[in-house]
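Morning F.,

Quick status update on the modeling queue. The single chain you submitted on Monday has been processed. Sequence for confirmation:
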Amino acid sequence: MATNSNKHVFPVLGMTCASCAKSVENIVTYQEGVVDASVNFATGNLTVEYLPDMTDATKLQKAVQSIGYDLLVEDETKRQETVEAIHAWNFQKLKTKTVWAIILSLPVVVIGMFFMNMPYANLIMWLFATPVVLWLGGDFFVNAWKQAKHRSANMDTLVALSTGIAYVFSVFNMLFADFWHQRGLHAHVYFEAAAVIIAFILLGKLLEEKAKNNTSSAIKKLMGLQPETVIVIEADGTERQKTIEDVNAGDIVLVKPGGKIAVDGVVTSGNSYVDESMLSGEPVPVLKKEHEKVFAGTINQRGSFRFKAVKVGKETMLAQIIKMVQDAQGSKAPVQKLVDKIAGVFVPVVIGISILTFILWFFLDGDNGVVQGLLAAVTVLVIACPCALGLATPTAIIVGVGKGAEKGILIKDAESLELAKNIDAVILDKTGTITEGKPEVTGIQWLNNDNAAKDILLSIEKQSEHPLAEAVVKHLDGVSSIALSNFESITGKGVKASHTNEIYYIGNKKLLEENNIAIAEQLQKQADEWSKQAKTVIWFADSKQALSVIAIADKIKETSVEAIRQMQEMGIELYMLTGDNEATAGAIAQQTGIRHYKAEVLPWYKADFVKELQQQGKTVAMVGDGINDSAALATADVSIAMGKGSDIAMDVAKMTIISSDLTKIPQAIKLSKQTVAIIKQNLFWAFIYNLIGIPIAAGILYPLNGFLLNPMVAGAAMALSSVSVVTNSLRLKWKK
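Structure tokens below.
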């Protein structure tokens, strides 16, 4: 059913707590045509999958507006700017409200604590507290009313009930003090509690908002890599400046020294070194010549060149990376789904506890039952905090994903970040994962060390269409080529060509044997040694004797051996699966220290092998870079693609190692362990806080030592719990 569905991410406006996120998620989920919906309170985004023939963004927006929130459904390119502008305006508004709430609350607190007996004390406190409760805290009452209309409740409901009851109770006590005096009781007012609760909660929200902005800095950094304008060369050769949005595939773009590359493309003329560290994590700039690929966000060094735009807008590698990071930061870890359920029932349960508290006080404390009961009920409402619970997981995920991106590890979803810590089996593809993925000349031995014929070798290989010929040409870079005649390709054996009445051969040993060409013992000995190492051996000869022997192999990456050692030390079982022959696979396994390997495997076997390990109860990570790995990547618990591999592998995988450096895998596992540890700490503190705070607020200690929690202190503690959770998540940023 979901095959024709569209998946979109929309910013949600007006959410103030975890329960709000749950309310929006519920209303969207129940809309006709919606396949799946998820709201992340920390990022403020709704991720929704829906059937376009049954519903659309406008209908979803109306549904969300009906419960007092809003969806931003405008064009994606402008959306980020609009959201940032709205957040900046809201943050400024919140800052102003917080400052005024603190200024106006201070005199109320001072009078309430030290000058209760001064003339007109109650009246002065009422004057200062009224704007705090009704104006600066007005949003709490408006939002609570919107929720109540839909038989729902959230954090605002708790704040509105607690401050509203305290305020109305105090006004009543001030105007009708005789009502209590006649009953032998003192008419207390709690204006300071009502005002200070709002001041503290606004301050908590301000700090929370500031911390949440910090967590999304990874996205802002990535977006900052894109230049806003580019120089495009028109058909008549004139230079024209265009905005990045106006660049089309096929445009010729000029890059000047020090300039940022705006879109993905292929160099058409000129050459220069380009700093690709922001994509690959590699510090050494890469030489870009004609026909080489360049990527958006990378920085040109000293030279200048022109390139043809191939991928623009949302298709560039940088845009894909930004999208992957955004999707991952907005996705929910499995633990978060449980927390959401708790947040959904949390507020009604707290209201129930508050009512029960009042009833118990009313019946058990005779004379002061009403006053003490109201105070205790208000304090329960104030101290309860679903925000700490709601922020515990997403803030840690946001920081974890951001930190991964900075290290060159792109994490597509929260689930793989949470699962990575459990990995106990890693399957590695050979070509392009453990090895470089491109054949290189690893050795060349000339007969009697005489390389006089190297120009002939280069010239023949330049004309050859054999895949290995390119490796020889690259190895002999700098040697000048010469004219040849009678070039001929001999299928399955090699090539031959003539130069100054002499015939030369390049190919396998069979080619030399068929033409009765002598092979010197020194060359044969070297060839045998290279064959044992599973290297491909090529012979170069004239019509009489072999002139040289060349070894070609797919080199093991420098970092692979170290990465394999690190993973084995972590107690992870490693398996290498390759379509290559047994001899090559065995040689690579021996050189890297991999104990389990299988050669000559077909793509479907890799996926079956993943299932086999999973049936043994293992958490399996598959690491690959090719289209042939995509089935196994999709089957694995944690799928990791090499960034220099195929687009399909990267689409399927839940993690991408941009630089293709295997040492990033142990780093990803370590990051997963750190993130999950932070989530557990956050949840522990959020639960403990509520488990201890609510009974104390209800007055459980009163029969033992006469202690009753002041609603003002409860407000401060509530604000502090949210801030402590976000601050704890930010600690991840500085962990090694």
